[in-house]
Amino acid sequence: MSRVCREAERRVLRHLHGRKTRTQLPQIHAHIFRHHLYQSNQILSHFISVCGGLDKMGYANLVFHQTQNPNIYLFNSMIKGYSLCGPSENSLLRFSEMKNRGIWPDEFTFAPLLKSCSGIGDHRIGKGVHGEVIVVGIERFSSIRIGIVDLYTSFGRMEDAQKLFDEMLDRHVVVWNMMIRGFCKVGDLEKGLCLFRQMRARSVVSWNSMIAGLEQSGRDGEALELLREMWDHGFEPDDATVVTILPVCARLGAVDVGERIHSYAESSRLLLNFISVGNSLVDFYCKCGNLETAWRVFNGMPRKNVVSWNAMISGLTFNGKGKLGADLFEEMIKKGVRPNDATFVGVLSCCAHAGLVERGRNLFASMTIDHKLEPKLEHFGCMVDLLARNGCLEEAHDLLRTMPMRPNAVLWGSLLSAYRSTGKIKQAECVVKELIELEPWNSGNYVLLSNIYAEDGRWDEVEKVRALMKEKNIRKNPGQSMVLG
User: Fold this and answer.
1) Residue 461, C-beta contacts closer than 8 angstroms, at least 6 positions apart
2) Residue 311 in contact with residue 278, Cβ under 8 Å?
3) What is the pLDDT of residues 237-268, one digit of tens each?
4) Average pLDDT score over the chain
5) Which contacts of 9-14 are long-range, i.e. CB under 8 A and separated by 24 or more positions?
6) Once rounded to an integer, what is the mean pLDDT over residues 121-127?
7) 202 φ, ψ (degrees, to nearest 5)
8) Which residues in 101-111 are b (16+ Cβ under 10 Å) and which e?
9) CA angle 158, 109, 86 (to 5 degrees)
10) Do 177 and 205 contact (CB within 8 A), yes or no?
């Protein structure tokens, strides 16, 4: 290669890994053509790798298909790019094309390919790629073994993962963490804890994985105890630890621990650097009833996302400040923050608790008109609750009858409670019949209907309900009261 070509290659590589690469890809590509480097696999593999890092695999694919004789480096760059950006299936397509061209894969092929298999969601494909690894004879490479363990744990196939784990002589902390997460994911907390206790060297991720596993299984007390142990062993929580443990503190009423975490989040700059930490603190203080501190954290956050606003709006509802929550929603819109489904669940709940019927109607309509969001079951539930709470029972009933999806038992139950509390027996009867049609196996619905008839003195109807239950072999659950004539 001439000195001029080598210098051109160096310039291209400098541009590719410079600070302005994202905005200069077309210019760099033109530079490659101008200096006749468009068939240089070395340069093109770098170019494609950069495209993958910038989520521009469409451009990478265009460049790849213009190459006459792509080599293993180019294929590996494409496979890795699709493993990062998706679609994961394209990694497998490139791998298949690579084999058809007679190019022998290496460890740099399989590490991203295994990651793509996890993204596809079919363990049989992953198993097939594992078989290819064995055929090629590179299972001994640490990165490959880690990739295979990650593959099996992501699918919850812990027997396969355990077999490979047991065969490993040098087990990196990353592999231990994968195994712990995998066992926690499939609900085998004891096995996860057992592995955690066996670890000679742990990382913050190890502690986080075990704490999260306990939290997700409802073992809040043990999760909190493990956090204390983490502190005692000299490990400093990171943003993931804080986000996981604050809901635990709220549920257990461990305000002192939550406040200590808040203090630590400020001193460690986690609160400054991670929006999720601020969001979790807002949620924690709202659930503990400390709105003053929640407001202070919320207003002090240097950056907010839609989750931040949702947490504060929902927190205000939770603490009986529905009007303030609805007002905060309006402020959010004025600041140009785009609401999502969860935002509307929060603000409609605000309206329901504050009795803001007209405002709730307008907000519900604005979902589709202004924000292009299709109301889901939970949004209809909020509206039924809003209307039923405020005496608009027929409107609530009409909404249930005309909504695009089938109402569930919770929605009908909300309307039923309102009808019964206002003495509208006939309408309550109609709703219970809807519940029976929806859940014909639920004895509670029949008991409700029987009791409505009893309250109205219609004893013949009570007997009919009893006979229907007997005919359908539906037994009354213990603790349910059925009035008899």
Assistant:
1) 453
2) no
3) 999 999 999 999 999 999 999 999 999 999 99
4) 88
5) 9/37, 9/40, 9/42, 9/43, 12/37, 12/43, 12/46, 12/47, 13/43, 13/46
6) 85
7) -110, 160
8) eebebebbbbb
9) 75
10) yes
Three-state secondary structure call for residue 327: helix
d(CA 157, CA 19): 42
The Cα 110–Cα 108 span in angstroms is: 6
Tokens describing residue 150: 């990650």
Supply 143's token pair: 């990165």
Separation of alpha carbons 150 and 185, rounded Å:
13
Amino acid code (one letter) for 312? M
Cis peptide before 87 (omega within 30 of 0): yes
Gap between the Cα atoms of 242 and 355, Å rounded: 36
Given a contact cutoff of 8 angstroms between Cβ atoms, the answer to whether 38 and 10 are in contact is no
Q: Are 206 and 198 in contact (CB under 8 A)?
A: no
How far, in Å, CA of 144 to CA of 111, rounded? 6
Long-range contacts of 368-377 (CB under 8 A, 24+ apart): 371/338, 371/339, 373/339, 373/340, 373/341, 373/344, 375/344, 376/341, 377/405, 377/407, 377/408, 377/411
Give the Cα separation of 44 and 60 in Å (integer). Answer: 9
pLDDT of 65 higher than 70: yes
Q: Are 77 and 98 in contact (CB under 8 A)?
A: no
From the list 304, 237, 316, the residue with the least C-alpha distance to 272 is: 304
pTM of the model: 0.82
Hey, what long-range contacts does 447-456 have (CB within 8 A, 24 or more apart)?
447/476, 447/480, 447/481, 447/482, 448/416, 450/482, 450/483, 451/481, 451/482, 451/483, 452/420, 452/425, 452/428, 453/429, 454/483, 454/484, 454/485, 455/425, 455/483, 456/425
Are residues 467 and 435 in contact, defined by beta-carbon separation less than 8 angstroms?
A: no
Q: Which amino acid makes up residue 459?
A: W
- Could you give the CA distance from residue 425 to residue 483 in angstroms, rounded to a whole number? 16
In Å, how far from its chain's centre is CA 444?
Answer: 34
- pLDDT, residue 396, reads 92
Among candidates 66, 64, 84, which has minimal Cα distance to 74?
64
Say yes or no to pLDDT of 482 above 60.
no
Alpha carbon distances (Å) from 8 to 20, 35, 60, 158: 18, 7, 21, 51
| DSSP state, residue 403 | S
Structure tokens at 145: 């073994």
